[in-house]
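@channel anyone free to eyeball this complex?
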Amino acid sequence: MDMDFSPEDVAFRDEVRTFLAENLPERIRDGARRTPGVFVEPDIGMEWHRILYEKGWVAYHWPEEDGGTNWTPTQRFIFEKECALAGAPSLSVLGLKLVGPVICEFGTPEQKAKFLPGILSGEDYWCQGYSEPGSGSDLASLKTSARLEGDEYVINGSKIWTTHAHHANWIFALVRTDNAVKKQQGISFLLVPMDQPGVEVSPILSMSGDHEVNQVFFSDARSHVDNRIGEEGQGWTIAKFLLENERGGSCHAPRLLKSIEGLEELATKQPSGVNGAIAHDPRFRDRLARVRLNAEALEVTELRILADLAKGRRPGPQTSLVKLLGSNIGQDIDTLRLELLGHDGLQLPLERPLYGNEAPEPVGSEYAQVAMGNYLNNRAWTIFGGSDEVQKNIIAKTVLGL
Ligand SMILES: Cc1cc2nc3c(=O)[nH]c(=O)nc-3n(C[C@H](O)[C@H](O)[C@H](O)COP(=O)(O)OP(=O)(O)OC[C@H]3O[C@@H](n4cnc5c(N)ncnc54)[C@H](O)[C@@H]3O)c2cc1C
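replying in thread with the prediction:
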């Protein structure tokens, strides 16, 4: 899409571009490219996090007084777009984009002083304890309990699908602190240290063999009352604030468009079996063009959200639209890629990581080696952060007024 950037924006874009060219190591780009999981592994992601931290660019969506950059929404968009074009890994959203903004918005000065520096520097690694067995879409039915004993909460229950809990030293959890009130009103938002006897992390392997998610068990685990964000019973309000950031906190379109460019290039190299390369097959060109148009339309929607943010408005239910479209376009890209790769795309190596010196030899290309893992893992996009059906319900109710 053509955008009329101001001269300041163009200067900013050039500054970001130069920084990326000089500071994004090939090892990290290679790791990002060859990760079949949804989430970049901490050895790659946190190395990039620390580079950005040293530059002062890691928390570009936080208020300046809490360690943010004071960039305009357009500058944030430019930054994300340039990172996507340069092949930088996505940063872990769990600290920077999920719990960080919650602490900035709802935390006390003491809580900000305690938690924000560790998120910024990357010293603390967070995971998200929302979903439970039986409480996913119907999140308000969650049962994990936190009972106040003196100045500590005693926590019992279980969280599931907890991304990177095996790397995390803190979990932000929704817990039930009151059973006597309406279910949404009995929930609190509690930060819990993972490194204690009452917390057990049990791995769940995805269908590609990747270990990204876990089940976390709390058996009389403890957390100080000062680690509760907001008031008791305010957890549902905070949970919704966080979910809006989870669904709409990033621009998906730049990465999707970069992937589509990769497909367009690949299509010029793959034989159609009939008449030259698949890129000349009108049916395939049609499908590729549709995906590109959808991604470009998503980019416009994301820019509209940024314009709202610039006017001080919260993005609201538009984030559901972005989540829905971004997830589905991503899956369309994965499907087209596998079709383009033919039998090379059927390989599913189980060794990890697929980057670095120990990586197994690819069959065909490195691109093909991760394609099936990407395809399988990315099925999760239409589930986590609220499934497609849940997003459609939100859009029907709040946007269309049905
Ligand atoms: C890879 C991955 C990573 C995740 N990471 C985390 C994490 O870090 N932390 C965390 O807390 N959670 C995480 N989740 C959990 C995720 O948020 C839940 O899986 C999701 O909210 C769906 O809940 P569920 O799995 O219990 O499915 P259910 O809620 O049981 O839904 C089952 C099916 O029913 C449909 N459905 C449910 N309710 C409705 C309705 N009202 N109308 C129409 N259809 C409906 C759903 O769309 C779905 O198709 C992750 C999930 C995945 C797959």
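from a first look: The CA atoms of residues 156 and 218 lie 5 Å apart.
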